[in-house]
Amino acid sequence: MYFANAGMMEANNDKQNFKQVRVKGNKAIIQYDDSKGYTLMMQMGQTSLIVWECINFANEQEVMTAANSFDIDGIKKMMGEQ
Fold first, then answer.
1. pLDDT means over runs of 10, the chain (82 residues)
2. Which of 31, 44, 63, 76 has the most beta carbons within 10 angstroms of its beta carbon?
3. Can you give the pTM of this predicted structure?
């Protein structure tokens, strides 16, 4: 539900601190907060969500590089997601 509403929230928010991205072809949302840094949330199938709390990452590119280093397909398979 969060991913479905992200576009609407993005359009209605003057100060945007998140955006939609893709991690290995999967929908994800990256969010930035001055007090805690980056958070990356990625949908894994229909019932699972993986969340990276990226404390002390210098920028969005570092977050995306770290997330793309995970074996997403292996995690999905292990959890029974498609």
1. 52 73 94 95 87 95 97 89 72
2. 63
3. 0.77
